[in-house]
Specification:
By secondary structure, this protein is mainly α. It contains 2 helices and no strands.
Length: 89
Amino acid sequence: MSTITAILEADIDGSLHLPLPEELRRGKVRITATLESAEDQPSEAEIQRQRRLGEIMDRIRKRNPFNGIADPVARQRELREDRPLPRRT
């Protein structure tokens, strides 16, 4: 009996491929598997932070701060021209 611990990446169809040790490559193999995500799960604090950020972004979207800009491209050109670039004359 061998114990194998591996992190496998699923193929597009959801199948997993487990490389076997040389001594188990012939005949039948009994496998007992426990599946769990290998990705780091976000902490409760991180989840709360993401919710709060989403709420703030929703409030910004509702206020529509860029509503008064008729031509965004022209506005960007104006902003870039107003600022002198470093080491350029």
